[in-house]
Design brief:
The chain is an all-beta fold. About 0% of the residues lie in helices and about 50% in strands. The strands form 3 sheets. Strands 1-4 form a two-stranded antiparallel ribbon. The chain has a two-stranded antiparallel ribbon with strand order 2-3.
Length: about 70
């Protein structure tokens, strides 16, 4: 998150763990086996191309590149 400011997460995570190069968000499942929608509210810190990765335990990460205009 060196190019973005995290302004909020919905639903609120049960726990957040900081690692050397990433953060781990832990969420409580209301209904195990059912999908959970998570929203990360991010604000760019500067213009330009920003790449981030999102992942789930045991799955390949999703890499997202976003271009921010002034």
């Amino acid at each position: 998150l060196d190019t973005m400011e995290l302004q909020g997460v919905v639903p609120e995570p049960e726990q957040v763990e900081a690692r050397a190069d990433h953060l781990i968000f832990v969420f409580r499942l209301e209904q195990p086996g059912q999908p959970l929608q998570i929203t990360f509210n991010l604000q760019p810190i500067r213009v330009g191309a920003h790449t981030l990765q999102l992942g789930l335990d045991g799955a390949e990460p999703l890499r997202v590149t976003q271009l921010v205009y002034p």
